[in-house]
Amino acid sequence: MKVVELREYRIKPGKTKEWLDWMREEIVPYQISKGMNILDTYLRTDENGRDYFVWLREFESESSRQTIYQQTYNDWWIKEVRPRVFSLIDEDSVSVKLIKPLDLF
């Protein structure tokens, strides 16, 4: 059964353009190359003017999600990418919810 992640991150003030450019140019292509299916991306602004990056990633199953995670979040990611991620988004804002698609249509 397919699994979809609904992910949301609060972008640090003044970092929205840098975050979106980096996601578009490097992060999304890298994750796609590792087998992730990116369904869509969104920018949400709350009532206080804070920007949030929201995206949906789909996996064929929970086991495929775990396999792709192992391939994606390797030593390079931990040492090189993760520090930059948290220079652009608030670490305590990361929200990941697993949702299961319904076959209603």
From TrEMBL:
Protein name: NIPSNAP domain-containing protein
Organism field: Vibrio caribbeanicus ATCC BAA-2122
SUPFAM superfamilies: Dimeric alpha+beta barrel
InterPro entries, alphabetized: Dimeric_a/b-barrel (IPR011008)
